[in-house]
Amino acid sequence: MGIDRTVRRFQTITPFGVGGIYDFGSESFVGMDTTKWKVRGDPELRLPRLERILGVQGFRTAPIAGKALYNGAYRSGGSVPYLRFPSWLFCPNCRAMKQWFSRMEKEGEHPYCDSCGKKSHLVPMRFMAVCKAGHLADIPWGKWAHVGSRSNCSNHRLEFRSDPTRGAGLQSLVVTCVNCGSANDLERLPFKDSLVGLMQRCEGTHPWQKRDLAEPCDQFPQVVQRGASNAYYPVVETAIDIRVGEKSEESVFDLIRLHPQWDPLLKIKALIESPDDPFAAPFIGPILADEKLAKLGVTADLVWDCLQDTGRVVDAASPTSGDDESLLVEEWKAFITPPEGLPGSAFIAEQTDLDDFEAQLLDLERLAWGEFRRLVSQITLAKKLRVVSALKGFPRLEPNHEFLVSPSLGASSSWLPATEIYGEGIFLALDADALDSWEKRIPDRVLAGMRNARKRATLGFLPEPTDRFVLLHTLAHLLMRQLCFECGYSSSSLSERIYCDEEEGMAGLLIYTASADSEGALGGLVREGMPDRLYGTFKTALFRANWCSSDPICNELQQQGIQGLNKSACHACALVAETSCAYANSLLDRSVLIGEKGAREVGYFDQLISLISDTV
Fold first, then answer.
1. Among residues 412, 391, 411, 395, which one has the least CA distance to residue 403?
2. Is-contact 520 423, C-beta < 8 A?
3. CA-to-CA distance for 230 and 600, rounded, in angstroms?
4. Alpha helices in 531-588 (DSSP H)
C-alpha cells in the first residue's frame, strides 16, 4: 500500500512553509521554493491592502492534490513540492548510513535498507548545516568520521553507532568508517564553527537547487538539530479583510494600483499635467497593455482619475515597518466604528451596548462595573472575520530580517504563498483618558530591565516595549488563557492582534480564532464576548493574575524568558501557545496590570482588582 503523505494547507505557510523542515512519521522533508509550485492562471487569493504593503499582485494558496481513488492510493492531482532532507539516512537495525538522492525515490515507498530488506525503513540523521543567509546543507559525515584520522580512505562506508559505555550524551553517538576504522563521536558537533576544516565556506544553495544556481555567500554554516527552533523563522504578514459590500471583487482602481508601473507613475505625479503628457506615456502604456486591465476597459483617462484620487493613494515608497502599521490603523478604525455589514461582506462587526448591561447588574457589582467602564471604553464583537496570512520569507539561526529569504528565492514573482481563515473575534479598547493618566504615573523603572534587554536582543521584529504595549499584550494573553479555560478552546486555536500607537490614539486588542478548522467559527467566541459573559471572564483573568504558582520568584524577577524580554510573566501565569502569540511570548509583565509589591498603584487595573476581590 502506497504512502499517502499529506500536509494541511495552512501549514504550508507556517511551520512547514518554503524552507521549513516537515517531519512525517520517521521521514523528513524540506519545503521547496514557489517556483516549483504547479500553479496556473491569476492568483486566486486577493486582499488589496495587504498586496500594497507587500508589493505583490495577489496571493496563492498551496495547490491541492486530487482526491485519492481509494484508501492509501496516491492523489491524482498536483501537490506541494517537498524534498527528502537530510539526504543522509541510516538503518536502525544494522546502523549502516546511506546518502539518498531524488532519483532513488520510488512512488509510494519508504527508503529501506539494502541489507536488511524493505521492513527496515531508513531514518534521517538529526543534524544539518545552516547559515545566516538562509542556506541549508547536509553535514559532510564522511569528513566528520575521519577528523584526526591519518588514513587516506577514499571509499567511505559509514555506520551510525551508539556506544552506551561512553555515557548518555552525544559522546555516545559515533560515526564510523567501516573500511578504515576511523571514528568520531558527535560531542563537539553542535559547537559553534564545528565544521571549520570540513567545509571551506557555505555552498550558497538550498538542497533542491543545482550547484550552478549557487549564489555567493560569506556566512559560515553552523550545525543545528533538524527540529531546532532556530533552524527556521517564517516571517508571516497578516491582515484582516475589513471590506463590506455585496461584491468581493476588487475595484478597478485597486487593480490599477497593483500594477508594477503604478509606483513609478505615482512618484512623477507632480510633473505631469494630463494623461496625454509624453512624460507619463512610458508608465501609463504598460498599464493599458496589461491583459487583465485591458479586458476591464481601462483607459488612460481612467488611470489619470485613479492618480488624482488622492484620498486613496498610498505612499509610493517601498514597504517598510511604517507601512505595516497602516494595516493596523485601518483595522482599528473599522473596529472602533464598525461599518454596516451587507450580505456577502467579509467583515461583520457590532459594538456591544455596555450601558444596557449595567442595568442588569446587582447593586453589589455596580461599583466594580463603574471602575471597569472607566478603564475599558469599548467592546466590539467581530461576528465574521476573514484573515489572510502571507509568507514574506524566512531567515535562519537568528530572526534577523536583514537575511530574509523570499519564498521564490529571489526569482521575479508577482505573488506570495498565503492562506485565508474565516472566523470571529472579540475586540476590546481601553479608555484614552484613563490610559493617559496611568502612563504619566507609572515610573520608568518598572520596565527599565525589559527596555535594556530589548536593546541587546536579536529579535529585531519586536516593537519597543512601551508601557502601553506591554499592558495590552499582557492583557491579551491573560484573556486568551481564561477564554480557553472558560469555554474549552484549545490553547492554539486563539490568536492575538495588538493595536498600539500613541500618535494614532490606538490602545486595543483583538482575540480571534486562528485555527483553520471549524473550532470557533460557529459563534462560540462571539457569545463569550457578550458583556454578561466577558465581564466575568475579565474579572477572573485579573484575579488569577494576582498569584502565579511560581511566585514569589516570578513576580520578583526583573528579567526572565527568552533573552530576558519578560518581567513578571512565565508559563504558569501569562505565556500562551507559540502559534497564538505574534511576539514570541515576549514583552510581558503582570505588574503593569496588577501593580507591584509595595507599589500597587503602578497597575492599570489595581483599583478594579481591589473592588472585584470579593465578587469573583
1. 395
2. yes
3. 39
4. 531-545, 553-556
Element (H, E) at 366: helix 363-375
Secondary-structure breakdown of the chain: helix, strand, coil percentages, each rounded to the nearest 5: 30, 20, 50
Q: Peptide bond preceding 86: is omega within 30 degrees of 0, i.e. cis?
A: yes
Can you read off the three cell numbers belonging to residue 474? 499582557
Helices (H) and strands (E) in the chain, counts: 18, 21
Question: Predicted confidence band at 430 (pLDDT cuts at 50, 70, 90)?
Answer: very high
Residue type, 469: F
- Helix, strand, or coil (residue 429): strand
pLDDT score for 438: 95
Confidence grade of residue 470 (pLDDT, cut at 50, 70, 90): very high
CB neighbours (10 Å) of residue 78? 15
Q: Are strands 117-121 and 158-162 parallel, antiparallel or unpaired?
A: unpaired
* Residue found under cell 498586496: 51
Phi, psi at residue 96, to the nearest 5°?
-70, 140
Q: How confident is the model at residue 250 (pLDDT cuts 50, 70, 90)?
A: very low
How far is 345 from 316, CA to CA, in rounded Å?
Answer: 29
Give the side-chain half-sphere CA count within 13 A for 578.
7
Which whole number is the average pLDDT over 121-139? Answer: 94
Candidates 148, 222, 155, 157; CA nearest to 185 is: 148
In terms of pTM, does the model score above 0.85? no
Whether residue 359 contacts residue 367, with contact meaning beta carbons closer than 8 Å, is answered with no
Angle, CA of 441, 444 and 448, to the nearest 5°: 150
Run of H or E residues at 97: strand 97-99
Strand partners, 405: 394
Which residue intervals of 183-320 are DSSP H helices?
252-257, 262-267, 281-289, 291-295, 300-308
Within 10 angstroms of residue 280's Cβ, the number of other Cβ atoms is: 21
- Distance CA(67)–CA(75), nearest Å, equals 5
pLDDT, residue 75, reads 46
Instruction: Give the per-residue pLDDT at 245.
Output: 57
Buried b (16+ CB within 10 A) or exposed e, 347-363: bbbeebebeebeeebee
User: For residue 136, what is the enclosing H or E element?
Assistant: strand 136-137
Q: How far apart are CA 104 and CA 111, in angstroms?
A: 9
283 grid coordinates: 508608465
Task: Give the Cα separation of 16 and 44 in Å (integer).
Answer: 21
Q: Which helix (H) or strand (E) holds 375?
A: helix 363-375
- Encode 527-549: b = buried (16+ Cβ within 10 Å), e = exposed: ebbebeebbbbbbbbbbebbebe
Q: Stretch 302-316: mean pLDDT, rounded?
A: 59
